[in-house]
Amino acid sequence: MMEPVSAIVTGAGSGIGRAIAERLAADGYAVLVNDLSPGRAETVAAEIRGKGGIATGLAGDVSSEADAAVIHATAVAAHGTVGLLVNNAGIAHQAPFETLTVADFDRMFAVHVRGNFLMTRAVLPAMLSAGRGVVVNIASQLGQIGGVELVHYSGAKAAIIGMTKALAREVSSRGVRVNAVAPGPINTPLVMELSEDWRNAKRAELPLGRFGEPEEVAAAVAFLASDAASLFVGQTLGPNSGDVML
């Protein structure tokens, strides 16, 4: 029987990240559950272990170079060389552009873009050395179409999509597949931080007429992580209730 693949899921203490960690564990991965909150990270890891899965919880800020290194080192020590990275950590903040502060903008890009860079940089050398590995980046449909009062968020998610394509061109020939998932609005604590007016207006725009569930996004990630997605390179899958049609 093959050893479970070591996986890191950032921002996995709730919402989409939690669903991804749970799905990957159910699929047989050994998961490092990262979250900014130590309590949330360990709670999710403990629940996975309670269901017979393999998981370690660890707090850490992916925008910190030191924390990113510790997250990676802990995953390797606990579960072996990392074969799958899911860059999911993210934050939400809603404000009209003219009221955005430099701190708002910098923090948004620090978590989404710098965090993605730091975590990918940590895992990539071993993946390239082994000639195999998978990176899945969680973007957003707002990185494709923009969102009212979400300029900084939309810009950060667009950057993730661009980074996904560029890195895929660099490393796919060496055995590492890099793809993205760009969910539409999903029923998560993050989306609930947005105003009720925003949520109602967005729901009315969706051809499907409803927000998605975290498990529906996790299914897309599980597919991209699997051998069934061997032909997917630099792609952005869109579980988005029809908000973006490509």
UniProtKB/TrEMBL annotation:
Family, per entry: Belongs to the short-chain dehydrogenases/reductases (SDR) family.
Coiled-coil regions listed: none
Entry's EC annotation: 1.1.1.47
Keywords: Oxidoreductase
InterPro entries from the UniProt entry: NAD(P)-bd_dom_sf, Sc_DH/Rdtase_CS, SDR, SDR_fam
Protein's recorded name: Glucose 1-dehydrogenase
Highest rank taxon of the organism: Bacteria
